[in-house]
Amino acid sequence: MIHFTKMHGLGNDFAVINNIDGDVSLSTDEIHKLSDRHFGIGFDQLLMVESASSKDADFRYVIFNADGSEVSQCGNGARCIALYIQKKNLSHKNPLSVETNAGIMILTINSDDSVRVEMGEPNFLPSKIPLNINEEISEYLIEGFKVGSLSIGNPHAVLILDNISDIDSIALKIQSSSYFPEGVNVGFMKVLNKNEVQLRVVERGAGETLACGSGACAAVIHGIRLGMLNSKVKVHLSGGDTIVEYDGKKVYLSGPGEVVYEGSINLRSAPS
Q: Which CATH superfamily is domain 126-248 in?
């Protein structure tokens, strides 16, 4: 029996599990079954809170996509992790430091229960994204489209378009491209003004989600580098609004997180 808390950040939804004791071990296939929205819990990502291995962190934060693959970063999930830790009385430290495969993240819970996440420093080197191109430039021509690309602990491709209503075929072409050997999250951004954008993100291993925190960060950073955006930007996602701040070094993501319900599921009842 698996006990979990269902949460969401702007509609990007999660099952969160307390694995501090290390007694929960799920296979890729089991996670994929649990993510099923008809026979399982239903989620974009599975998040686990674990004991930190570093003395510089309070907890470890582990992320799995709906297809069971492990990833290094999820900004919306990080906000939910901070609120989960607080609401479960695991810690009342504020800010919290959590260890991820992408490094240490700092999570600050605000008085209105919104959370500001220090997402770290973006990486633009193609080898670090990873992107199969030798030279770093501001935009790349990939599958016939101008694409900005960077890593926020996970790989992102960003397209700036006047119309972001029809994106499925473009996302598929870019995600299946040999340019991205580990797959890629594809963001489609419409710039409304220098302080405001509209964004849709198709995530690797999850499909289009109602919100993607790291995708919002990647899109705003790309827009700032092109001189199209200011350093603090409101991002309108399908699930709601988030704020991204980038000072040229570190990027910060602010927004809400919500508990939906507490539950438990027997793995043997999940579809085979």
A: Diaminopimelate Epimerase; Chain A, domain 1 (3.10.310.10)
